Each structure stands twice: as structure tokens, then as C-alpha cells.
Amino acid sequence: MLQDFAPLAGSVPDIVEYDGALYIYHTGLEHYASVNACLQVTESGSVAISGESGGFVDTSLILVDGALTMFYLPGIIGMDPAGCQDYPCVKEIHSARSVNGSASSFAQIPGSRASANLTGGVFSDPDIVSRSNGSYLLYVSSGQSVLGYSSTDIDGSFTGGVTISNGAGGVPSAIEAPDGAIWLYVTTTVGGVEVIRRALLADDLTPASWVDFVTVMNGSALGLGASVSVSSPSIIPWPSSWK
Fold first, then answer.
1. Which residues of the chain have pLDDT under 50?
2. Residue 22's beta-bridge partner residues?
3. Measuring CA to CA, which residue among 229, 223, 227 is closest to residue 196?
């Protein structure tokens, strides 16, 4: 754990490098905070998405042509937006792009990036990954499993829906390694405590089993004790200009 970093009041965070700082987006009352190389918060505030009537949760961000692009689950006031008030229902993942370089003002991109017809369960926690070959991966949580989608158009429809982690964990975060491999991080429960586990995917949308995952973060690793749960990872390369 970075000892100089003060915890933020929020959950399900996602981190992105932008404009010389690290921007952390989350579901707290203030939706984002920027952190400088000294790990000090230099800016924070709430986020507005024009065109999105239901609010948003579970954000994931990348840079596209120098602009922040956010994937998210539309919010529903008064209920858990990951599931259905009445089944069956259709759940969608939306996206939005920052307006004029703002970190707090976004405009919704029409349509959905991925959707699911639910007869039970949940569809939530999107994670968008930019690949070095110009394509994009989208991982979505389905309870304790992860679904995988791909597209060459960041603003288009993603196809796939392949089950990547079948019961091995949800709330995904992934990254492309320098050799082109995909590392997938998930949250799951081991011995009654939530931990973060990681698997190396054979390729973008190849399923991984429980035995392919190893625990990489738990309460003990943070000095908080083995009984403390840790969850909802976000993984990016450390900025090359930072020491």
C-alpha cells in the first residue's frame, strides 16, 4: 500500500492516467479525484453525464484520442442497478466522452456498448481495455463470473458475451502486458473473506478456470489483517515519468 496516499470515501474505483495526473473515479458523493506524483489530491468533484437520465455507477475509463471515455452501468435510484426489479429485463452498459477536456463533464454516446437479457442474476461492473492492436476488450461482471466482449469501434456495439471466469470471481479489471498477454483481476471470496485474484488469459476471450487464478492481494498484504476483505480492483501501468 502507498503510505503517502490518503484513502478516498468511495467504492468500486477505477484509475486512469490523464493530463499528467492519476484520476480516480468511484461511486462516492464526489465521483473523482486527481492525484499528483506526490500522491496528493489536487482536484476532486462530481461528474455529470449529459444525455444520461438515470445516473451512473461502476465506471471504467480509458483515453481515446486524448479524451477520457467512460464506460458505466446506468444507475437506478432506489434499487441495485445491477439486477432487475422484475425479471426478465434488459441490462445495458453505456459509455460517454469528456467534454472539452473536462474531467467532470461527459456526454453520453448514443446506444449501448453491450447488453444482456436477464432472467435472473446481475450484469454490472464493466471494465474497458485498450489493446495495442487497436481493438478493445470489455469485461462485465455476472455475479461470480466475468463475461468478455470485443470491438474495433470504441463507440459501437461489442460482441461476444463469452464466460471468462466461470465462478472464479467477478468485478473485473484487466490490463494488456508488454508481451500482449491479458492479465485479468477479479474479486472472489476465499475462506469467507474477499480477496483479489489474477489469471493470465490464453487469449482475449478464452475462459479461465478457478485453478488459473492466484491470490495477489488480501487484507494481510495491506497490513490490515487476514480477516479484512479487499475487492473491486483497478489496474494500470505506473506512469513512466513518475519515480
1. none
2. 17, 35
3. 229
